[in-house]
Specification:
This protein is mostly helical. It has helices spanning about 5-25, 30-50, 75-80, 85-105, 110-140, 145-155, 160-170, 175-185, 190-205, 220-235, 240-260, 285-305, 310-320, 325-345, 355-380, 395-414; strands at about 55, 65. The radius of gyration is 22 Å and the shape is globular.
Length: about 425
């Protein structure tokens, strides 16, 4: 027997026992496909930010954001796969309406249910922003350039906009449920129409006469679209034939917008491009979301059966239990490598400009490092997801003040 074979065998047995333990604790009624879809969409967030976001050093040693999409336009289709917010909002709407109905059945109120959901979203956000508020002056004292600190603040805040949007649509769950009960998945169609009209005004023949803030109108209907589909799905009003219609219709609309109306191909912002699809969401985002949602509905049964395997189900459970930790801290994990790297000088795939194929290959090699950093940070940061029992009012107030200070600083430098 090889020297390390015994340790490998023991590790496999330990992993197998852990997986079977998770399997045994899973309720029979658990919708594994929903959890699997959520885990997939969630993991695409750090992967997308780690692969499509790079850094470049200025002469003073400060880090600035850079994107490989500015050089490698052919990588834009990768953003179609890595941007799975349509799936995330679909699953969020479905799980929220199911949770809401269960809460009412137990005698709870809409207000208590909503407070519980918002507190669960808010604790991790408060934690990460408070920690960074305390960390910034320490890093400055250690000689980290101001430009690097500003870049770090922007990156930390970047994924947190999603939490605010998600909290907003979650608050609309009771109204979404009533609309879905009456009109089914068709309730998402007016949201699509609003975004289409706003896009026509923004990019049509009279775009010069339209105020620049008009695009902000798309924020609510743009992100509520997939959430409303999820609510309809959770209420049993989105059948498989509806999924087929979403998949086909979304794919056709996506192709038409790209090929005929020349929407930007990337789902994320690209340096140098005047138009962006995601901030605020354009009609192309909704077309992609419809395609993703249709595929999710059609594949729901197959995914559920696949996740009956304990070895596949256990990682899904772990990811779902750490959802907000992953969302809030994955940029910090990348910065944990990039900030020290910036002090050392140019490092391939980390602090060099993302302008060569070598950078792409080097960044792929950095992904395990970022993942390991996230795992280590997550072990400490997961306490922010759990209820803050035993935390004094003074400490909560201090955390709130730090978080508010960091938010003001971050938005001032964006």
């Amino acid at each position: 027997m090889a020297p390390g074979s015994g340790r490998v065998a023991r590790l496999r047995r330990t992993v197998a026992r852990a997986a079977h333990s998770v399997e045994e604790r899973t309720p029979a009624h658990r919708d594994r496909a929903l959890d699997g879809l959520r885990a997939l969409a969630l993991l695409c967030v750090p992967l997308g930010h780690w692969m499509l976001g790079g850094f470049v050093l200025d002469p003073s040693g400060g880090l600035h954001n850079a994107s490989p999409l500015g050089t490698f336009g052919f990588l834009a289709p990768a953003s179609w796969v890595l941007q799975m917010l349509g799936i995330f909002f679909l699953v969020g709407g479905c799980s929220s309406v199911l949770s809401y109905r269960r809460a009412l059945a137990r005698g709870g109120t809409t207000g208590s249910w909503l407070r519980g959901r918002l507190v669960r979203l808010g604790r991790p956000v408060l934690g990460v922003t408070a920690v960074w508020a305390a960390l910034l002056p320490v890093l400055g004292t250690l000689g980290v350039p101001d430009e690097t600190l500003r870049t770090a603040a922007v990156l930390v805040v970047q994924p947190l906009w999603f939490v605010g949007i998600y909290a907003g649509v979650t608050a609309l769950t009771p109204y979404c449920a009533r609309a879905a009960d009456r009109w089914g998945a068709w309730t998402a169609l007016p949201l699509l129409a609003v975004v289409a009209v706003v896009d026509l005004l923004r990019y049509g023949p009279y775009a010069q006469a339209v105020p620049s803030w008009l695009g902000l109108v798309n924020l609510l209907p743009g992100w509520l679209f997939a959430y409303q589909l999820g609510v309809a799905w959770g209420r049993g009003r989105l059948p498989r034939r509806g999924g087929a219609l979403l998949l086909a219709g979304g794919a056709v609309l996506f192709a038409v917008l790209l090929l005929v109306f020349h929407y930007p191909a990337s789902m994320v912002g690209v340096p140098g491009q005047e138009r962006t699809n995601s901030h605020p969401p354009s009609l192309l985002v909704l077309a992609l979301a419809a395609t993703q949602c249709g595929a999710a509905v059609l594949l729901h049964g197959r995914i559920g059966r696949l996740l009956r395997r304990p070895g596949l189900w256990a990682p899904v459970v772990v990811v779902n239990l750490s959802a907000m930790t992953i969302l809030c801290w994955h940029q910090t994990a990348m910065l944990a490598a990039a900030v020290p790297g910036g002090l050392l000088g140019p490092i391939g795939g980390l602090t060099t400009a993302p302008e060569t194929v070598g950078w792409v290959l080097a960044r792929l090699a950095w992904l395990p490092v970022f993942a390991l950093a996230l795992l280590m940070i997550g072990r400490a940061a997961r306490r922010f997801e759990a209820p803050w029992q035993g935390v004094s009012a003074g400490r909560r107030a201090l955390a709130g003040a730090l978080a508010a200070g960091f938010a003001c600083y971050a938005f001032a430098v964006i």
